[in-house]
Amino acid sequence: MMTSNVYLQESSSGSYVLAKLYDEVSDKHLAMWNATWKPALEIHCKGRALVDSPEDYHWDWKWKANAWRPLLKYHFYSIMCRGELQGLMLANDTTTARLPEQAGKPLVYIEFVATAPWNRAEVQRPPRYRGVGSAFMAKAVQLSNEMGYSGRIGLHSLPEAERFYRDSCGMTAVQRDPGFLQQLMYFEMSEKQAETFCQKPRKS
Question: Rounded to the nearest 5°, which phi and psi values hold at 121?
Fold first, then answer.
């Protein structure tokens, strides 16, 4: 198991706090997800229409881990801060790019990424921590570089996250994918965009 230091911004104070990014999702992390994330989301969604619930409300991370952890092409990541699980991500390294300038080249594809309920403005105001998504994106770019893919990454975005990937991460919205039930927008980060993203000032 590999770990690295990342920093999350505490919304209440604006200060940065040390967190750990793990190159795995362990049974301990899954137990935390089950004991903390699930109840928090259930409380938030109680009495709400499905359309008003968080878009990842139905994701079962225990099932995802049990299905994909044994497969070498999949990479799991988690972020811990102050004894609590702050984020989870799953990526694979076998997908190819769609942008014209890099079409057909290999990239790292982010299958799923999520932050803890208390880090979401729609669940808690203000969110407890900011920066989980950016830390995971930086990790995906790092994995892409380690695989020899020059920082190229891609993902399908849930509607509420499109602005983050477009404006904060500088990714290109390629197309709405008819292969997805929700026709999710497919985003891709080119080699140049990855370089620009990594040059952004951030705590590390």
Answer: -60, -30
